Amino acid sequence: MKILGNIIWLIFGGIEAAIGYITGSIALFCTIIGIPLAIQTFKLGILCLWPFGSNATESEKQNGCLSLILNIIWFIFGGWFALLNHILWGLLLCITLVGIPWGKQHFKMAGLALAPFGKNVNIGL
User: Structural domain boundaries of the chain?
Assistant: First the structure.
């Protein structure tokens, strides 16, 4: 069922979302200051490619207040937009009974979009 859910996800917007995150990541990689943000954006892009069976977990390596500061910078400079985007799509999909599994995936991505520093993405293949 995970494979079928991921295939439907990819057909109906997953590829476009992943391309958006990955292109944004490449643009951020072009600047020295944007490299930490680019890595986090790339995490979201990877999660957009295969969300069913994948999850975001807390990193074993804790950076303490550095992660907090970077998450605040992330949120101010665009993380709020990704968060609201995933919440909106999650709510719209959960209105229909059929879209609830895909809405849950958007809520999972919203959690990562809120605070990506200090988290790892585990792809469940």
Answer: 2-118
